[in-house]
Design goal:
heterodimer, A: 114 residues, mainly beta, 7-stranded mixed β-sheet, 4-stranded antiparallel β-sheet, 49% strand, B: 112 residues, 6-stranded mixed β-sheet, 5-stranded antiparallel β-sheet, globular
């Protein structure tokens, strides 16, 4: 069953803590992305990676970090430096090379700071 | 930066009616895509239109693209209650690979 899996679905974090959101795909896609969605808003790009061991900052990278040690995995760490981390986080993947391909999304992780 | 702006922000119609959503963007693009999001879920790809295409159909969906006006529209015909969701346009910029920039979305409610 091919797809992209995010875990956990819900995550609660105390202020000052780092948390890591998991994203795994078995679609054999080279590119992976992390987006943040606030209530009633569109998606904003946090980080993206087009190949293993390489990633670039998106529009709102401050307070976040990523790694891409394996093609299948692209975990996102929300650090204590992120001032307003409560949001819905979406991971996506797509092919590279071809210009016109769609993105496949996971079901999201809802992070709440308590 | 948010490239796409969508209009209207919210739309409420009766089942069987058509729903039209519009999207405007700012820069040169390779393609424009439309996605659907059910409440609290991930996004699902609906349709992709290339920059050299003007219109595309998929089932009850019709998408138009006007690159001179940097705008697109999504028409859902004969809407159903199950079409209730948020709809987002996303653009893949020229030379930007598949790094999509999303609009703010249109919330569609289809009432019985």
């Amino acid at each position: 069953d091919g797809g992209i899996t995010q875990s956990p679905k819900y995550l609660f974090r105390k202020e000052g803590q780092n948390v890591t959101l998991s994203c795994e795909q078995n679609l054999n896609h080279d590119a992976m992305y992390w987006y943040r969605q606030d209530p009633g808003q569109g998606l904003r790009l946090i980080y993206y990676s087009q190949i293993v061991n390489d990633f670039q900052k998106g529009d709102i990278a401050e307070g976040y970090s990523v790694s891409r040690e394996k093609k299948e995995s692209f975990p996102l760490t929300v650090t204590s430096a992120q001032k307003n981390p409560t949001a819905f986080y979406l991971c996506a993947s797509s092919e590279t090379g071809a210009k016109n391909t769609e993105a496949f999304f996971g079901q999201g992780t809802r992070l709440t700071v308590v | 930066s948010q490239q796409g702006e969508e209009d209207p922000q919210a739309l409420s119609i009766q089942e069987g009616e058509n729903a039209t959503m519009n999207c405007s963007y700012k820069t040169s693009i390779n393609n424009l895509q439309w996605y659907r999001q059910n409440s609290g879920r991930g996004l699902v790809h609906l349709i992709l239109i290339r920059s050299n295409e003007r219109e595309k159909h998929s089932g009850r969906l019709r998408v138009t693209l006007d690159t001179s006006k940097k705008s697109s529209s999504l028409l859902i015909t004969a809407s159903r209650a199950a079409d209730t969701a948020s709809y987002f346009c996303a653009t893949a910029p020229t030379g930007g690979g598949n790094k999509l920039t999303f609009g703010t979305g249109t919330q569609l409610k289809v009432e019985l």
